[in-house]
Amino acid sequence: MTQAIRVRDLRKEYGDVRALDGLSLDVEEGEFFGLLGPNGAGKTTFINVLVGLARKTGGTAEVFGYDVESEYQRARDAVGLAPQEFNVDRFFPIIEVLEHKAGYHGIPPKEARRRAEEALKTVGIYDKRDTRFDWLSGGMKRRFVIARALVSDPDLLILDEPTAGVDVELRRDLWDLVRRLNDEGTTILLTTHYIEEAERLCDRVAIVDDGRRVEVATPDELRARSTDELEITLASVPTSLPEFDYEDVASVRVEGDTVRIRAVGAGRLAPDVLRDLDRADERVVDVSIRRASLEEVFVELTRQDDEEDREAETEAGAEVIA
Ligand SMILES: Nc1ncnc2c1ncn2[C@@H]1O[C@H](COP(=O)(O)OP(=O)(O)OP(=O)(O)O)[C@@H](O)[C@H]1O
Hints:
- This is ATP-binding cassette domain-containing protein.
- This protein is of the alpha/beta class.
- The protein has two domains: 3-222, Rossmann fold (3-Layer(aba) Sandwich); 227-290, 2-Layer Sandwich (Alpha-Beta Plaits), CATH 3.30.70.
- The chain is built from ten helices and 14 strands.
- The chain has helices spanning 43-50, 72-77, 94-104, 109-123, 138-150, 168-183, 195-201, 219-224, 270-279, 294-315; strands spanning 3-14, 17-28, 32-36, 58-63, 66-67, 79-82, 156-160, 187-192, 204-209, 212-217, 227-234, 249-255, 258-264, 284-290.
- The protein has a six-stranded mixed sheet with strand order 6-7-8-3-9-10, sandwiched between helices. Strands 2-1-4-5 form a four-stranded antiparallel sheet.
- A hairpin with a 2-residue loop joins strand 12 (249-255) and strand 13 (258-264).
- Adenosine-5'-triphosphate binds at residues 14, 17, 19, 37, 39-45.
């Protein structure tokens, strides 16, 4: 199967700033792939390299098998980009902006018109087709940049923080829209700071930090590696408690009548814990399981990565500053 994106040891330096530091990543055709990472992690730089807005310093980058530099036009024609910043021609009716964009991709005028209309219908702002970009509401602007990305009928749609700062209703609408596009076969690369967005939409998520890949996994796999919390409320403050000597228990805390057990996949421990409490004559009145969010997992993973770096530096005899 062709990979939609294939990058190896990708590097990009802006003067002294190393925005990408050996990033390697594969995105399969048809995938809904998420890119998560803190501010400045290199996500936008990665996208800019893929679409030819930034020139890589080293490594390789291919889109559907086309090198993003030596086969620029073919690679670029396969991609629709909805960028974080609005960089739209503000003086023309939006339908014309879309027609120009289609023309840039070599689409003849009649077909360009048809595609422009279709793209505006897809994102739900067809009735605004003769309006200038400046006169659209904030939410319509977000929809419009997605329409612009769609007008070339791309196989890969890149969405750079498409829902930053939008209200809940529009966010859900946009989620429905991109999910539908993915169901119809478009590969999607999404960068986001919203963990919920990645959890709901993505097949796999790459976590990027300091221009490098920290982890690639499904949202479920990431959560499975983090500790959840089992919270048990007892009928009264317990006099004595069982050992809770199960595998993967990170901590047990008792606060008044509440017992909190943190463990990897805490939910699956619940039957054993309840049985042991019953044997100890403790009456349980409530049980809840709080699953770790991807955000907590993310913090944990980047912390682990930092620790590994520090250990490596220590082994190399470098001075470590705590
Ligand atoms: N044109 C540029 N010139 C100089 N430095 C840049 C340029 N673009 C990005 N950088 C730097 O490269 C690093 C990575 O930035 P980038 O925008 O790729 O991160 P990001 O993960 O997209 O961040 P955010 O989540 O805030 O959008 C940062 O240190 C940034 O300051």
